[in-house]
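Workshop exercise sheet. Pairs work together: one partner reads the sequence aloud, the other fills in the structure field after running the prediction. Swap roles for the next sheet.
Pair: D.N. / O.F.
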Amino acid sequence: TKHRDPFHFISKAEFDQAVSYLRQRIPSMKDYEVVAGLQHLAALIGDGHTFLDTSGLYGRFPLEGFWFGNEFRVIRAAPEYREALGARIVSIGSVSIGEVQKRIQQFVPQAENQWYVLNSSAKHLMSVEPLAALGVLPGLGSADFTFEDDSGRRFKLRIRPVPAGAKSGEVAIEPVPLPF
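Structure field:
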């Protein structure tokens, strides 16, 4: 009601239909699935100023990734996952990173610029509950990530999530070393 032009990216009828669809499903949904549904509704508005703030609400994997073209690479990792630093994430669980990226887009306002979309999706890709809500993960626990290093070697690591609400300083995440 206070947005200057909420239906510049999606029609009011399409938005209302999405609201109705979510409302019908709520009784059979888990709490985090409802929150993810609300995130999707906010993203439908299409701008980065309209969002559901979930900071501190979701568990997260202690990795940080960045998009380098079509490759999603680990730029920071908790010490126990140091092997992943610099590697490309190939899949999360049995779902390819390309498919995960495609699914996660429903939480990202698509009328924003390319860099906003890429940065936002990178953050969502490390959030446990959205991945579970999208069917990427079977539940809220640890997940198998498949990586590929620059020599083409593929390897898997089982990554334990950091609980929701954990302060960022409580989990040390190391940056990828820069080559000289």
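Discussion prompt: The chain has a mean pLDDT of 81. What would you look at next?
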